[in-house]
Structures are given as structure tokens and as C-alpha cells.
Amino acid sequence: MDGNGRWAKRRFLPRYIGHQKARTAVRKVVAHCAKLGVKALTLYAFSTENWKRPADEVSKLMSLFLDALQREVSKLHKNNVRLRIIGDRAGFSEKIQQHIEQAEALTQNNTGLALNVAANYGGRWDIVEAVKAWQLTHPEQDIALLTPDALAPHLALAELPEPDLMIRTGGEQRMSNFMIWQMAYAEFYFTERLWPDFDEADLEQAMVSYQQRERRFGRTSEQVAKC
After folding, report:
1. Average of pLDDT values for 4-20?
2. Domain locations along the chain
3. What's the average model confidence in pLDDT over 140-150?
4. Which of 27, 42, 79, 219 has its CB 3.0 to 4.6 Å from that of 116, i.e. a possible disulfide?
5. What are phi and psi of 95, to 5 degrees?
């Protein structure tokens, strides 16, 4: 969800106003995904690298995160959405960690959209944590025996299918350390639209683009046609 700061700057507003406005886009996208029958949606809210931003901006982002956990979770629960936060929670305040646990506990049995928020998350961190988890569960095995199939169950969101489509707003065309393992065969869609302006029509445009792709997963077009 890129472009909040630039959205504010173009309007001669403080950057945190852009982050506040971004919540409106989140609500729209989450609601529309649920309406369209999307099974899982993962939002990249705060990366492990975002701590490098000015302290005042980080502080305001943490306040917005806490406020969202306090105000939005009951609405998600009412709409049968299951919320999960992926990332290194140890970096957050105790209060935020408590609200994360409460939010996940409240929505854990919901059967609608699986909404995942990546916060203090990085794809490299995810892989390292997965290797550690594998070693803990296989203490007697040589690391040389580790395979992609053996590691996959220890990654974040391992219980969900791998992503089909990655949408990045704001005009940048890179992954920025987001689910780099899971995105191995995802289709990428980049848009100049800044995240606070992203709406239902933009989401559907991305989906139309996705529907026009041929997903071969290493096979030839002829092989895909026979499936």
C-alpha cells in the first residue's frame, strides 16, 4: 500500500494525514474483496525497514495501528472476516501486542475473507524464522536435508494458498521484501495510483489484468491448454 506520504505532500499536508486517509482505502478494498468472494487478502502495512523512517512518523504510524485494532476489529468480526497479523510482534509495544492477540482470538473462527496484515514484516525475516522453526522441529536432522517442501509449512500463512496476484500502488515496481518466498509464481500488477486514492474500480481493473494472464508454472502454453 504505497504512496501515502506522496498523497499528503501533493496536498501540502503532513505525511501522517496520508496514512490516516489510507484507512479509507483499506476499508473499501477489504469490503470489495469480501463481496467478490476473494478468499485471502494480505496488506503490507509496515515493513521491517520502515523503522528507519523519522521517529515522529513511526510514532504516528504506531498510533494509527493501535487505533485501527481498537476501532475496526469489531466491524471485521461482524462481517465474518478472520484477521491475522504476520511479522515480528516483539518490535511493538505491549499494548499493541495485546490488542493483536485479542483481535485474532475474536475472529479466529470466522469463515469469510482471511485478512492478513503484514506489520513489522519482511520476506527475508520470514524465511529465516522458517529455517529456525524447521530446525527446532527437526533437531537431529542435518540442514543439508532441508528442502523447499519441508520449509514451506513453517512460513507465514503456510495454511493458505500462495498468492495469485500482487498489487502495488504508487508507481514503484519492486517487491520491497514482501513475501518473497510466497510470491514465486504470483502475477504482478503495478499502478501509478497512490494508495489513499485506490478504490473498488482500481481493484477490479487489477483483477481484469490478472484474468488476461496465462499462468504456466514452468510448463509450456501447449501443456497449459491441455489441462
Report:
1. 96
2. 4-211
3. 93
4. 42
5. -65, -45
Question: Is residue 103 very low, low, confident or very high in pLDDT (cuts 50, 70, 90)?
Answer: very high
Q: Which amino acid is at 196?
A: P
Among residues 2, 116, 120, 202, which one is catalytic? Answer: 2
Size of the chain in residues: 227
| pTM more than 0.85 | yes
Instruction: Judge whether 79 counts as a catalytic residue.
Output: no
Q: Which of 42, 102, 36 has its CA nearest to residue 72?
A: 102
> How many other CB atoms are there within 10 angstroms of residue 80's CB atom?
13
Residue 77: burial class (beta carbons within 10 Å; 0-12, 13-18, 19+): middle
Superfamily for the 4-211 domain: Decaprenyl diphosphate synthase-like (3.40.1180.10)
Question: Poorest-confidence range of 78-87, 138-147, 196-205?
Answer: 138-147
Residue 114 pairs with which residues in a beta bridge?
40, 82
Q: Is 67 a catalytic residue?
A: no
Closest C-alpha to 118, from 179, 44, 65 = 44
